[in-house]
Design a protein that fits this description.
The protein has 243 residues and is an alpha/beta fold. The protein has two domains: 6-131, Response regulator (Rossmann fold); 143-241, Winged helix-like DNA-binding domain superfamily/Winged helix DNA-binding domain (Arc Repressor Mutant, subunit A). 44% of the residues lie in helices and 21% in strands. A five-stranded parallel sheet has the order 2-1-3-4-5, with helices on both faces. The two termini are 34 Å apart.
Length: 243
């Protein structure tokens, strides 16, 4: 993603809004700023936006309110939330609503620049994948037939083995997709949260967010032991999918 990407800064505090705008303009981005959630939604509806840098707590529409609305009509936009009042609850809410990153104020210029760059890299990768779908990666409609008779349909988010038919939630489907695409690779909890949910979290919070999802996936796959047993915990690190 070139630095001429379109970024929208949303913060009700004038000084912080201007500071964020200046930081990103110095990096060569095209930056527009607005002072509240309502203005942010109106701007996104009418203008091209690649990434939104968004304050969580604002009068009127909160940052999460903006995320939910924008996700309905522009789900491709990357979103970075900023907050001075971080908590596990708000982190999980952000994760559930497809937020790319979640930064605590005061975030340093380096943190902001790196987070924005990662979000734009993800956006660019998705766009390139759509333009050049034959990349060897498993797309959302691929059907995979494994050696032991297990068939995984990522479009339907289903797993079939003989008379056993299992349906996965979107998050469970994304997690299984990451595993199947990368057999034998050890993933940290933090890596998997980012890959599955598109949300960057701390090394301390990542296991608390990821373990319930892995547990639910294993429970659903329990009727297909040969598949469930391939998801192996790596002590103090994360998980590996043994092929």
């Amino acid at each position: 993603m070139k630095n001429r990407a379109n970024i929208l800064v949303v913060d009700d505090a004038p000084v912080e809004r201007q500071t964020l705008t200046d930081i990103l303009r110095l990096e060569g981005y095209r930056v527009t700023s607005v002072a509240n959630g309502e203005a942010a939604v109106d701007y996104v509806r009418l203008n091209p936006v690649d990434l939104v840098l968004l304050d969580l707590r604002m009068p009127g529409m909160s940052g999460l309110d903006v995320v939910k609305v924008v996700n309905r009509f522009a789900p491709e936009i990357e979103i970075v939330l900023l907050t001075a009042h971080g908590s596990m609850e708000t982190a999980i809410d952000a994760l559930r609503n497809r937020v790319h990153d979640y930064l605590l104020k005061p975030a340093s210029p380096t943190q902001i620049i790196e987070s924005v760059a990662r979000g734009l890299e993800r956006l660019n990768a998705r766009r390139q994948s759509k333009q050049h779908p034959d990349t060897g990666q498993i797309d959302e409609h691929t059907i995979i037939a494994m050696d032991d008779g297990v068939v995984i349909d990522f479009g339907r988010r289903s797993v079939d083995a003989g008379e056993t038919h299992i349906f996965l939630t979107p998050a469970e489907g994304r997690l299984l997709k990451v595993f199947v695409e990368n057999p034998g690779k050890v993933f940290s909890h933090r890596d998997l949260v980012l890959l599955v949910q598109g949300y960057s979290t701390s090394y301390q919070e990542a296991p608390e967010i990821l373990r319930p999802l892995v547990s639910r996936l294993r429970q659903k796959l329990a009727d297909i032991p040969k598949l469930a047993e391939r998801i192996v915990s790596v002590r103090a690190t994360g998980y590996i999918f043994e092929w």
